[in-house]
């Protein structure tokens, strides 16, 4: 009976801790923002050298990071599309242990595009 209680309390504590680690969305700044920018640039470069789209990063307005099954970055960014600049919401969901485990979703004024690439 006593051990059941311990197990219950422990699993409750574990749930609380993992809920804090997973699922928490944090807005990035400083070196974390820099890392997020590198991640985004890397994805843009991979897609541009693959089947597109061909975007360059203008500037990051806001970036957040969340630990899910893998790692998820969400950005509000200005993307340079040839000679025009558009403001998009970009999500990079990274599961680098999978083949083509990096999924990039562009939500731009002209619609949504979902792409995958390798890590
Ligand atoms: C990301 O790419 C943009 C545009 O090419 C560049 O100006 C910027 O310095 C790059 N950022 C990093 C962290 O490499």
UniProtKB/TrEMBL annotation:
Gene3D superfamilies: 3.10.450.10. Keywords: Signal. GO terms for molecular function: cysteine-type endopeptidase inhibitor activity. InterPro entries: Cystatin-like, Cystatin_dom, Cystatin_sf. Residues 1-19 form the signal peptide. SUPFAM superfamilies: Cystatin/monellin. Residues 20-109 form the Cystatin domain. Pfam families: Cystatin (PF00031). CDD domains: CY (cd00042). This is Sarcocystatin-A-like. It comes from Drosophila hydei. The gene is LOC111596987.
């Amino acid at each position: 009976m006593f051990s059941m209680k311990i197990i219950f309390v422990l699993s409750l504590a574990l749930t609380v801790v993992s809920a804090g680690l997973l699922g928490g969305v944090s807005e990035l700044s400083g070196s974390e923002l820099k890392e997020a920018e590198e991640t985004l640039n890397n994805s843009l470069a991979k897609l541009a050298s693959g089947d597109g789209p061909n975007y360059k990063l203008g500037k990051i307005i806001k970036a957040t990071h969340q630990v899910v099954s893998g790692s998820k970055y969400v950005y509000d960014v200005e993307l340079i599309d040839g000679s025009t600049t558009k403001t998009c919401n970009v999500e990079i969901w990274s599961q680098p242990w999978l083949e083509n485990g990096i999924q990039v979703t562009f939500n731009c004024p002209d619609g949504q595009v979902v792409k995958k690439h390798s890590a």
